[in-house]
Design a protein that fits this description.
Shape: globular
Bound molecules: ligand EPZ
Strand order of the largest sheet: 24-25-1-26
Largest sheet: 4 strands, mixed
Helix content: 25-40%
Length: about 425
């Protein structure tokens, strides 16, 4: 087992290459199950969740070829699901990653049946899958949940329908969208998610021959087709990774260029950071983030569906607010249990009070290094960021959470002058 050790107090200077978006790559990989032809995905991030999805798709019969190797920007994954040999997604893999549920729609629509383990709760909340199942039922699937597995059958194939999601869900929108591409007739998804990762998925599905209109809006029209073909697609840059490093500059101070970061995917995040006192400029290669001030200003932040502030950056912005001048209110509106980082930040000297979905943060002059650990990806990285600005040494345990979604985290920060390393725990 490894931990990440950070000696705080070093300013950051340099450039960080932003990788392809994990949360765009996962549904795109699931989409490869919709066709027997080749899907070539470039800018694929080298993170554990991608490897987990690869293991799952292999069980279903997909084969993989990694092309161009070495730099992440050029890494291309060729996926071929010529024949689906197995429609069961087993508990052992699904429990490792909730995004595994995204194979349900493609398997069902291509094969007429699928059996996928229920993902269960997780560290950031209960995270039910009722909206995924109801959407597929609307498309004509018969679904039963037995012994921890979702059994879905569509004997005569799926049939287009009007689906009105009771609330916005990224995953349920993706599952319904994937299933509807091969359903008979038209499907309309109302109150669909419009996150950039969904737009990326639609762009690739269209290259595969899917007929979809409305991407980037909350209503999607899908005209089912008989079959889909192969495609080549470059995954969008990871807006959450870019936001994470922008916040790192706010905490540590300094100047960093985020290569390939896109302003249009981060408008709300950038406006919060500018209010906090950071300077952010677009460059030819991405975004330059500058933090000259000693103390940053406090800002109230509320998470929400795109284009609002993303829940996946809530923990990181809280680390920044912990060392701001003044008080800030951080409201988590997407997940009910996503404050796992709070007790750990408090161990580092942060002053935070939780009441329901609200976190009241009183900025301290500085945080102090401590041994900490977190139970999910974004909470873990928030602790790394806090460590960059803290006095003394911070050790973040359970590094495997970081590896699920951040490619070369230590290397990227180290290249900008951070004193950070991975240490083997005996
Ligand atoms: C996606 O999860 C992301 N994961 C999450 O990123 C992200 O936090 C989340 O969207 C919100 O933006 C991937 O893209 C792989 P949801 P997802 O369905 O699709 C409730 C990260 O750190 N809900 O939009 O699972 C749910 O409990 C991860 O990279 C139901 O009630 O999220 C939540 O409160 C973590 N019933 C809300 O909807 C359902 O059937 C939004 O969840 C589905 C969801």
């Amino acid at each position: 087992m490894y931990k990440v050790s950070i000696q705080g107090g070093r300013r950051l200077k340099g450039a960080i290459q932003i990788s392809g978006a994990k949360n765009a790559a996962l549904p795109l990989m699931a989409a490869s199950l919709l066709t027997e032809s080749d899907i070539k995905l470039s800018n694929i991030p080298e993170v554990v969740d991608i490897a987990t999805m690869q293991s799952l798709l292999t069980i279903h019969g997909a084969s993989f070829e990694l092309m161009n190797g070495k730099t992440s920007k050029k890494r291309t994954l060729l996926i071929r699901a010529k024949k689906i040999v197995n429609t069961v997604a087993p508990y052992d893999l699904v429990r490792k990653m909730r995004a595994s549920i995204l194979v349900l729609g493609p398997l069902l629509t291509r094969c007429g049946h699928a059996k996928v383990s229920l993902p269960g709760g997780c560290a950031i909340g209960a995270r039910p899958v009722d909206m995924h199942l109801n959407a597929l039922k609307s498309l004509g699937a018969e679904i039963e949940v037995e012994e921890g597995y979702i059994h879905a059958v569509a004997k005569d194939g799926l049939k287009g329908a009007k689906i009105n999601f009771p609330s916005v869900s990224v995953g349920a929108t993706e599952n319904a969208l994937l299933a509807a591409t091969l359903a008979r007739g038209e499907t309309v998804l109302h109150n669909a998610a419009s996150e950039p990762e969904i737009v990326d998925l639609i762009n690739c599905l269209k290259k595969m021959g899917a007929k979809i209109e409305g991407e980037g809006t909350r209503t999607l029209h899908i005209q089912g087709v008989d079959c889909l073909c192969g495609a080549e697609h470059k995954i969008i840059p990871d807006r959450i990774e870019a936001g994470t490093y922008a916040i790192a500059v706010g905490i540590a101070g300094g100047e960093v260029e985020l290569l390939d970061a896109r302003k249009d995917l981060l408008e709300e995040v950038l406006s919060v950071l500018c209010l906090a006192g950071l300077e952010i400029n677009e460059t030819e290669k991405g975004l330059r983030v500058i933090c000259k001030k000693n103390r940053i200003k406090s800002v109230d932040v509320s998470t929400g569906v795109f284009p609002a502030f993303p829940t996946d950056l809530q923990a990181q912005i809280m680390s920044l607010m912990c060392i701001s001048r003044g008080k800030s209110l951080i409201t988590e509106k997407i997940f009910e249990g996503r404050f796992m980082h709070v007790p750990e930040l408090c161990r580092m000297g942060a002053k935070i009070r939780i009441s329901g979905q609200n976190a009241y943060v009183t900025g301290a002059e500085k945080l102090y290094g401590a041994s900490v650990m977190a139970t999910d990806l974004r909470a873990s990285v928030a602790l790394v960021l806090a460590g960059l600005g803290a006095e003394g040494k911070t050790e973040v345990n359970r590094v495997y959470h970081l590896d699920r979604g951040y490619e070369n985290l230590e290397k990227k920060l180290k290249n900008c002058g951070a004193a950070i390393e991975r240490v083997l725990v005996h």
